[in-house]
Structure formats: structure tokens, C-alpha cells
Q: What sequence folds into this?
């Protein structure tokens, strides 16, 4: 597969990009299956397993993993690397509560050097921040995702 | 809960990372990346890991969350920040561990800051980071 290297100006211009935003409610079945995947027993009192903080903000902001790959002009699914995830939980999340979700790009720039488990080369580092608010407007949680998009071999 | 700086958090063990859980997770996440569900696609990559699917980063992180919640309670986790130096593969036996690095109080809540990690036995961490956990009263 050919390496693609979009102009760095296009990558830097992603900072400030806002996703449409929206609402997301975690149903019991979704929480049950999600929690089972983690190897944990269901949590009490309708608590949602905090691992939901990966996909719930993304889908709730009306984007998708594939959409975020495309936004950064990923060469392919295989060219994406995870730098870090940073999740803050101000209030535990519950099933059947409709959360309001916003999301935007907070950092985007071109880097050069070794990436995790990978050959050295050029890659773009893009950071996304999502926020969840309860129906009354109180801040509930946030998710900051930092991915790298490989562009070329050294 | 009597916790002191330097205390170890009890380990949480995933005996074998199961590929069918990765497939369920991929469906829930709407994650199109075949590295999580197509062994032949992984084998075709120049990673040298054979026909073993790659665990989703959030799933590895979830083992560390399970460790924290088993230790301090299901609503205890306030923040996790995790990096991913290595991948976790289907069939891996991994252990989540942690250690308390600081104890402080914020808005009347006693918080423990911790280093956390997820490792295959005898290896450097596949995932590593920090966590802040609210400690129960007793």
C-alpha cells in the first residue's frame, strides 16, 4: 500500500475542528456486553463500566473511529497507533441516562522519529477531546485520545 | 480504608485474552480495524506476530480499571492516563498491577494517586500510566 503524506498545513488546520455533537444513552444490554468483554462481573446499581469512555464519547459526538481515521487522512487502518488515553470521571456514568456529548480536535502536528513497535518515520500526532454532561448540565466525564498516523518509512 | 504511599494494589489477572471478546468489542465500538478480528489480516502485516489478533487498547485499559475498582470500589476511579508501549495479543496472560504514589485530600475526599501497569509475566509493561482513585471512608 502506498504511503500518503498530506500537506502539514492540512493537518495543523485540524486544531479546533468540532464534531457535530449529540446525545448518547448506554442501554443495559450494551453495558452488559461491554463489561463482559473486560472480564468483570456487572457493576452494581446500573453503573456503566468506565471503559465506555472510549467509544461512548466518539459515537455520542456523532463521529466514529473510522471517521476520525479519515479526518486525519489515515493511509489505512493499520497506520494508526495509540499514544495515550486520558479519562477523567467527575461523576460515575449510569445506564439509561442521556448524556450530552461534545468533541473537538485539540492538537495536531507532524512528528518524526520512532513510534511504538514501529519503524522510525514521519507521523502525524492528533489529539481529540470529548466531554460528557449530565441532563442537568453538570460535567460528568471527559476523554482525551491521542493517536498517531504513520505517513512514511524512513 | 487504610492506604499508605508505597502500598501495592492487589493484582488483577486476565488468564487468557480471548479473541471472541475482541470481536464483541469491535462490534460495540464500531471499530473497523481488522487487526482486532481478522487473524489473517494481522498475519499479513510486517509485525511478525503471526495469526493473533491485537487486543483493543481500551480493553487492556479495562483490566487496569478492574484492578482499581476491585481495590477501592466501583465508583472510585477519578482519572486514568495510559500509554501503550506494546500490544497485547489474543492468548496473552496479562496482569494488571499498581502502586500508591501519593495520598491527598480534595474537596473533602481522600484521593490516592497511583502508578498502574499491565504486563505479560517477566516483561516490561505493555500498558502503563497513572490513576487517581477516591478512597472509601473505611
A:
Amino acid at each position: 500500500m502506498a504511503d500518503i503524506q498530506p500537506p502539514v498545513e492540512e493537518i495543523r488546520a485540524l486544531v479546533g475542528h468540532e464534531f457535530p455533537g449529540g446525545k448518547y444513552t448506554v442501554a443495559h444490554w450494551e453495558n452488559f456486553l461491554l463489561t463482559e468483554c473486560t472480564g468483570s462481573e456487572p457493576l452494581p446499581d446500573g453503573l456503566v463500566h468506565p471503559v465506555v469512555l472510549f467509544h461512548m464519547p466518539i459515537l455520542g459526538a456523532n463521529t466514529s473511529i473510522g471517521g476520525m481515521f479519515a479526518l486525519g487522512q489515515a493511509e489505512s487502518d493499520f497506520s494508526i497507533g495509540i499514544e495515550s488515553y486520558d479519562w477523567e470521571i467527575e461523576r460515575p456514568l449510569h445506564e439509561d441516562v442521556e448524556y450530552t456529548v461534545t468533541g473537538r480536535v485539540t492538537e495536531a502536528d507532524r512528528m518524526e522519529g520512532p513510534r511504538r513497535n514501529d519503524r522510525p518515520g514521519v507521523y502525524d500526532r492528533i489529539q481529540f477531546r470529548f466531554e460528557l454532561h449530565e441532563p442537568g448540565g453538570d460535567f460528568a466525564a471527559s476523554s482525551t485520545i491521542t493517536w498517531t498516523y504513520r505517513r512514511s518509512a524512513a | 480504608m487504610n492506604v499508605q504511599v508505597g502500598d501495592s494494589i492487589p493484582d488483577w489477572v486476565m488468564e487468557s485474552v480471548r479473541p471472541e471478546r475482541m470481536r464483541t468489542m469491535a462490534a460495540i465500538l464500531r471499530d473497523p480495524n481488522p487487526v482486532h478480528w481478522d487473524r489473517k489480516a494481522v498475519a499479513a502485516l510486517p509485525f511478525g506476530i503471526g495469526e493473533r489478533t491485537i487486543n483493543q487498547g481500551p480493553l487492556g485499559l479495562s483490566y487496569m480499571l478492574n484492578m482499581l475498582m476491585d481495590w477501592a470500589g466501583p465508583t472510585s476511579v477519578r482519572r486514568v492516563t495510559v500509554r501503550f508501549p506494546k500490544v497485547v495479543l489474543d492468548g496473552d496472560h496479562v496482569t494488571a498491577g499498581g502502586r500508591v504514589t501519593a495520598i491527598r485530600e480534595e474537596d473533602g475526599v481522600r484521593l490516592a494517586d497511583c502508578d498502574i501497569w499491565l504486563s505479560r509475566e517477566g516483561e516490561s509493561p505493555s500498558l502503563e500510566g497513572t490513576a487517581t482513585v477516591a478512597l472509601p471512608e473505611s
Summary: The mean pLDDT of chain A is 92.
